[in-house]
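Fold this sequence, please.
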Amino acid sequence: MEANLLVVHGGGPTAVLNASLYGVIREAQENPEINKIYGAIGGSEAVLAENFLDMGELPDEKIELLLQTPGTAIGSSRFPLEQEQYEAMVAVLKKNNIKYVLFNGGNGSMDTCGKVSQACQGDGIYVVGIPKTMDNDLSMIDHAPGFPSAAKYIATVTKEVGADVKSLPIHVCVIEAMGRNAGWITAASALARKKPGDAPHLIYLPERNFNEKEFLEDVKRLYDELGGVVVVVSEGLRNEKGESIVPPIFKTERAIYYGDVSAYLAELVIKKLGIKARSEKPGLCGRASMLLQSKVDKEEAILVGREAVRAAVAGHTGVMVGIQRKPGEIYGIETPLIPIEEVMMNERVMPETYINSRGNDITDDFVEWCKPLIDGDLPEMISFKDEVEHVLRSKI
């Protein structure tokens, strides 16, 4: 008997979230057991409101546009759910003959996925998670779709800013990367380097307590040596007390809002060192840039979308499609199914082996791990200043 499928997006969009949606639609269209392919227009809240779109009826040219569209074409949300709402979802799914439910998202969405799966036990409804987060903080997987494109973006931006600062080496530039409590994106800025002295000159991650005194020492030393310094910092930097290094600017019952870490540190450099400094915050530009989308990221996002459909139709529930790296020098992945309870709200941060001893940079191990994800080297750049300095050194 034919049944319907529903896909729900949760949390922040990425450069490849729509690629996973594309994979879901194409795989579902090829499966005779699936009738309608519903998208929840607006995240979890849309399920309760029965705000569904039958994406299987869309023309092919519209579906193909998903591969070049950032964000999420069906919308997302951070709608908090209570137990009675999970139970209400079951009634909605039954009413609409929805047998297969796919949640695409990060930690919060996988928590929702697990709770919906529990609520649906015994009702013949199969619930599967699709990984997504640019922060790369989902546990139990090698990396999450969305992260490789964000990594490529921050590395490219850092390389370009580095060329700018090297051209006119008179100031310190502090770039702020997204990532919340995990430093994966910040660390990826290191891929901008081709040789010693290239930007970024300093990298600070939230996995280590931020030491203001050491930061100023590092900046002053490099400024005296190079003239221009590029620093990449995480938005989640905290002090030894575990508090944000930036004072809160606004509070609500559910959240505390802070100012920009990069602006705070640039101002600190000016005040404490008397050195010209400026801040840059790519922010959402880096979260959903199609211009710098990673090909590897897109292909893997499509794959996990397809695998989620296959898993649900095969009768799997309460699982998330994983991404595990195959051993060996040639990059490749496998997509095992992971019990959702091992993923729910379990945050994955940078391991110590990827951070240097002083906490102001990353190690070569991280670079080697990250390189395959951005599908090739960044654009080559030339500095005639370097060429001249090389010639002068050779004459000494």
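The chain has two domains: 3-145+291-342, 150-288+350-384. The longest strand covers residues 98-105.
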